[in-house]
Amino acid sequence: MRKINNGQTGMPTILAFLLIPISGLAMDVYIPSFPKMVEALHTTPAAIRLTMTVYLVSYGVSQLFVGSLVDSFGRYRIGMTALALFVLTNFVITALNSIDWLLVIRAIQGVLIALIMVAKRSFFIDVYEDEKQKHYTSMLSIVWSAAPILAPFLGGYLEHFLGWKSNFYFLGIYALVLLVLEGIFSGETLKERRPFRLPLILNTYRELLTARDFSYGILILGFSYSMVIVFNMAAPFIIENVFHYTAVATGYSALVSGLALLGGGLLGKWLIRKPFFRKLRNGLLVQLGIAMVMYLAAPYFHHIVFMMVFVALLHFQMGYIYNSYFTYCLTRFPQMAGISGGVTSGGSYMVTATASYGLVSVLNVYDVSGLSASYIIFSLLIGIMLLLVYPVIANRSPRSLTV
Fold it and tell me: Which of 1.20.1250.20, 1.10.260.40, 3.40.50.720, 1.10.150.20 is the CATH number of 7-183+196-401?
């Protein structure tokens, strides 16, 4: 099996960045098709939303455990096998006419994407060190945010011209191309395998989760991304059923959301050396203020442009906060990159899946007022977590609290 050394990182790095958005593509590309899928599969909006939640839960739970596999048995073969099976499952979905089987396949896809993502995130910890490592890991959430930008935008046109199944044909073909390129150019990056012994693995998880700045950070990441998922779940029905636009308009709205997310992530990278807690606190206060103005103004401005201006501002702030804490968690335990990366992403996705689906169900988010209320709730939850993590960060790095 081919091994990658420090002189062969160019093309494998490009392929890793091309694979990073695949988790978001698998989650977001079919969002504009939600209303049509309700009709085609003879089901309910709640059941179609559940396909996203099932994927998120499966993806999140799997990442909690697959990190130990890629740390013990290597990144390459596991990632390639998962990518090949992901290609197959997308083509299987195009032959389905049952919501029950769609839920099953989406759960399987969550596991496969978890294996791919944990393996590829570990790549950057394996082959880069020091400032280069921070540079590339801070780029991960920025590159990953390309999926929320492109996927629903592309999905809107795929739905409009080719129908909902074309979304999954696209995923299958995209993954197949990357599978071939990975086979040609990439290879194994794990330098030292960790023994696959249960007591050792459990001690590793205990070390991660008892570090409060790390475990509370997972909650902060989960609540932050829940804002995007609630928008994704609610937007097709608000835009197409309330404002009476087409799936293409849903795609453009998701494009605006994704660009704002990307912009916030870029700001987080630009401010990577600024005091950690101070920049998170200031960003959250701005976010909460915007959400409250949106909620108060919603009854008086019933228009898609009004909604998307506030969504863009809020997702910009969310991208900034998410990128800052994601980089912190990902580099917190470099000696166990697979497990810590899996727990960071997997744990936050579990929080996201539970919080977003629960809040959408309780608030019945089908209008702008409900959407803005969800933003306020998640901002308050993030604020509580930051207050709890403040003493830990202060003890680790007093400089992070001052300008």
Answer: 1.20.1250.20
Reduce the secondary structure of 221-238 to three states and give it as a string.
HHHHHHHHHHHHHHHHHH
Asked if residues 123 and 71 have their Cβ atoms less than 8 Å apart, the reply is: no
Contact criterion met (CB below 8 Å) for 160 and 247: yes
Backbone phi, then psi, for 246, in 5-degree steps? -90, 175
- What gap in Å lies between CA 343 and CA 214, rounded to an integer? 10
Distance, in Å, from the CA atom of 360 to the CA atom of 337, rounded to the nearest integer, reads 34
- What contacts 169, CB < 8 A, 6 or more positions away? 90, 91, 94
- Average pLDDT across each block of 10 residues of the chain; the chain has 403 residues. List them in order: 67 86 87 87 87 87 78 82 96 91 95 89 74 71 71 83 91 95 82 69 80 88 90 84 82 83 80 76 90 92 89 91 81 72 80 85 81 93 88 60 39
Cβ neighbours around 46 below 10 Å, total: 13
CA distance 294 to 292: 5
Note whether 172 and 80 are within 8 A (CB).
no
Q: Which amino acid is at 386?
A: L
Q: Where are the domains of the chain?
A: 7-183+196-401
> How far apart, in whole angstroms, are the C-alpha atoms of residue 140 and residue 136?
7
